[in-house]
Amino acid sequence: MKILVAEDDSTMRRIIELRLKKDGHEVIMAADGREAMEHINKGANFDLIITDIMMPFSSGLEIIGKVKCNVEKKIPVIVLSAMGQESIVLEAFTLGADDYITKPFSPNELSMRVKRLALAVYVT
Amino acid sequence: MLLCLYKLSCFYYITIALPLLNSIVTEAMLEMAMLFFISVIGCVLIFITFYLIRYAIRSKIRKKLYNYFSNIISEIAICESVSEIQSFLDKTSVKRILYKLLQSTFCRQVFIHQLTKAAGNVAGSSNENLKWVYEHFHLEKDSELRMQSNRWHIKAKAIQELAQMQQKKDIKKLYRLANHSNEFVRQEAQTAIVKLFGFSGLRFLNVITYTITDWQQFCLLQELTLKRITSFAGMERWIRSSNSSVVIFALRLVETYHWHELHDEVAAQLTHPSEKVQQKSIQTLGEIYQPHTGKLLIAAYNKINKQLQFVVLKVFEKAASENEIPFLLQQLNHPDNQFKLIAARAIHNCGAENRAIIRDTIMNNGYSAAALLSKLLEEEIV
Question: Rounded distance, CA B207 to CA B143, Å?
Fold first, then answer.
């Protein structure tokens, strides 16, 4: 799978990258919302997007909105955020997020969720 | 007036002060003074330049260290066993640089900062791995040493690190700091204790003399939500504490965990000398309402101020039973419309059949109640 990871914390970004690469995925990294938007606008064919919510320039919610606007291809989105407030979780799901993981998170759990989502996309 | 004063001071300066100064201060003295001030300014400038250079170099080094440590920490976080971490650390490239870097106090501080930050973001085996590395390099000794610093911010940061890395062996030192004179140190120590030991850690409430702020109470409750609570030992003692903030926090705990067994202890606080405690106990009773709670609140009603009376009515709005209706009907005659409104809502909440009673009471009284009636009609109470 080709996965875009949008996360502003360099250590977290690297942990996610290494864990997903271990599973054999191709991982593209974005250090902020603007960089993630650039990747999406370039038309790179991502199979999955993992995004934080609080990021410089564009928030994760804006990224979800942008991705879910595309009617041709519905890319699944996993939100990975320290913000666990009900209102934000609900907003993310309303915008079309497919999963929501709150920090502190287990990289192994993230890996399993990615696998499950990949399977669901493959089945549909 | 100001002009007069100015002219007077000029006159004084020219006629008296200037000749007097000329006779006292010699030219050599003036030269000496000039030299002294120039050298002082020079020293300050040199100091600022050195400081800025040192700061720039340190920032550059710190940035490089961040990148390097970030990679190391990420690799460690995704290891699947301790032996895998060990073999990663034994790699020549890692051993050559990391071990050497960690000999420097500054580098160790940066590493601890990165490690604790990452540990706060990851859970499960990754978190365990980071904790293992922290202990493997004996970094807890650094944190413990800095916890003894005289500067509060260093102390507070060290406490955070020890708590994040689950260093339970430092509990004695943490307990001492839970009643520290500095607010921030105290807060960090209290939060750390609850983070490490959950509800049982709250026994610091037995001894603290300082006030626990509302924010700190919120932080402690937040930490407790992440823990499984098996015993509520100590609650009675905290409710009877001489420290009002401890009593309020204990009442908040009763409210949050619906500790009905402590109903009578909470009710006893209705006569507490502190109004804040009284208010919290009324609100808490609302959360653990029992058949006789209404009677207790009504008994206390005339002994408390108007603000607290309003809190009592707010409790009745949510929890009143048929037994409280006579009292609530009396409140429909209260001079304040807000009181009438809450009382009407409370009566209505006891049962929709009470609508007629509210309507009749309002209509039978002579006072002008147009606004109240319209509000009640709006809410479909009458």
Answer: 25
Give the integer Cα–Cα distance in Å for B59 and B56: 5
Q: For residues B289 and B23, what is the distance between their CA atoms, to the nearest angstrom?
A: 89
- Cross-strand partners of A100: A79
Report residue B62 as tokens.
């710190």
Which residues from A are below 8 Å from B164, CB to CB? none
Residue whose pair of structure tokens reads 């490690």 in the numeric block: B115
Q: What is the predicted pLDDT for the residue at A69?
A: 83
Whole-number Cα distances in Å, B110 to A70, B95, B205:
43, 18, 34
Task: Give the residue among B309, B316, B323 at the shortest CA–CA distance from B349.
Answer: B316
ipTM confidence:
0.87
E-strand ranges in chain B read none
Note the pTM of the prediction, 2 decimals. Answer: 0.76
Put simply, the answer to whether B70 touches A10 (Cβ < 8 Å) is: yes
pLDDT at position B381, please? 60
Cα–Cα distance for residue pair B267/B250, rounded to 1 Å: 13
Inform me whether the pLDDT recorded for A32 exceeds 60: yes
Instruction: Decide if B124 touches A, using CB distance below 8 A.
Output: yes
- Contact at CB, A106 and B126, closer than 8 angstroms: yes
Report the chain A residue with the minimal C-alpha distance to residue B114.
A11
Report the distance separating Cα B305 and Cα B312, nearest Å: 11
3-state secondary structure of A28: strand
How many C-beta atoms surround the C-beta of residue B32 within 10 A? 11
Instruction: Give B75 to chain A, closest Cα distance, Å.
Output: 7
Extract the tokens encoding A121. Answer: 């996309």
Q: How many CB atoms lie within 10 A of CB B308?
A: 18
Does the structure show a pLDDT above 70 at B375? no
Q: How far apart are the C-alpha atoms of B57 and B65, rounded to whole Å?
A: 12
**Tokens, residue B329:** 């009907």
CA distance A93 to A86: 11
The pLDDT tens digits for B226-275 are 888 777 788 889 999 999 999 999 999 999 988 888 899 999 999 999 99
CA distance B77 to B44: 47
Question: What's residue B96's pLDDT?
Answer: 84
Chain B residues touching residue A15 (CB < 8 angstroms): 73-74, 77-78, 118, 122, 126
* Chain B contact probe: residue of A5, A7, A14 with most B CBs at under 10 A: A14
The reported pLDDT for the residue numbered B127 is 94
Q: Which residue has the tokens 């440590």?
A: B69
Yes or no: say if B85 and B132 are a contact pair by the CB < 8 Å rule: yes
- For B70, the closest of A11, A82, A103 (CB atoms) is A11
The per-residue pLDDT of chain B, averaged, comes to 87
